[in-house]
Amino acid sequence: MKKLSICVFSALALMMLSGCFTHYIKTGKGGNAVQSDDMELYFVAGLAGDVKTYVDDICESSKHTTVKVGRTFVDLLINLLSGLILSPQHVTVICEEY
Length: 98
Prior knowledge:
By secondary structure, the protein is an alpha+beta fold. It has one domain (2-95). The chain is built from 3 helices and 4 strands; from the N terminus they run H-E-E-H-E-H-E. The chain has helices at 2-17, 55-58, 73-81, and strands spanning 21-27, 33-43, 65-71, 86-95. Helix 1 (2-17) packs antiparallel against helix 3 (73-81). The longest helix is centred in the first third of the chain and has 16 residues, at 2-17. The radius of gyration is 17 Å and the shape is elongated. The model has no long low-confidence stretch (mean pLDDT 86).
């Protein structure tokens, strides 16, 4: 039974640590100056959370922005150590610099 538990935990750890991802959302030509880089916290493997990023407030007059959403190795480690309860993600807002 102990060997089975170790195998299951190892398989879950391997899957979690190989799951880094990054999404880019661009408007216009995209931005070139980082204005905000925050860790947002979600729960239950990212299924629950009420985090909103208001790009218009961060990039006040810029029509060219990029929002980068992703998980880093540290985010995945936190997710694994919390037993999939906490699921942090990094959200970076990049605005056009004048």
